Amino acid sequence: MKYTFESTIERCETGGTIKIPFNVWEICKKEGAVPVKVRIGETGFICNLEPEGKGYYRIPVQESILQMLDIHKTYPVTFRVTQSSAKDSPYSTANPVRVIDSMEPVIQPYDGLCGQSCVAMLAGITLEEASNIMHCGEWQATMDKIVGALNYFGIDHSEEIIYTNGKEDVVLPKCCIIMEKMGRYSHYLVYFDKKGYDSNLGVIDHYDVTKIKGYMEVYVR
Hints:
Blueprint: E1 2-7, E2 10-12, E3 15-19, H1 24-28, E4 34-40, E5 43-53, E6 56-62, H2 63-66, E7 75-80, H3 114-123, H4 127-134, H5 143-152, E8 160-163, E9 175-182, E10 185-192, E11 195-198, E12 202-204, E13 212-217
Parallel strand pairs: 1-8
Antiparallel strand pairs: 1-7, 2-3, 3-6, 4-5, 4-7, 5-6, 8-13, 9-10, 9-13, 10-11, 11-12
Helix pairs in contact: 3-4, 3-5
């Protein structure tokens, strides 16, 4: 899984640093020493993320890398930790659980099941079935677990999350999973064919893209 956002480089004693605009533990389920492969613009390198505390990290940029970059310029930044994979699944991208050509809303009975609801909507299954495959309860669904479930069901998707952080000029793909900022957690919903499918609100005919923290494309025909 790749994670993508835009940022500038800040100067520090060892070269430069880039603040990651999301909680790495919440999204990636990684903590402690986190080795990553980073790309800033066209420049790639390998490093360990530097913890700030409470799941937040920075990307260290060594002086030798910094010399190839402009400290005042905003760059697209991408980093990769690990990828989830489908295990013991009867499905594949060539034989998915269904062809996504429509979407039915799934309403969660109580808060904390939005990630499972997204998987249920995309796979065309019940919320209980999605929760069983993901092996998680309320407030436990992360993007990593959602991706693992999509892989299990053979639902093809992008390998990167695009972080837009409230931009107004975002053009969403036909289908994607959206992350909205909600307190210390993210709220997940499905976007399909110009409509939002929210496990709290149902179908949203005109979705407000300024609410978006980030999104991951789901490939549909």
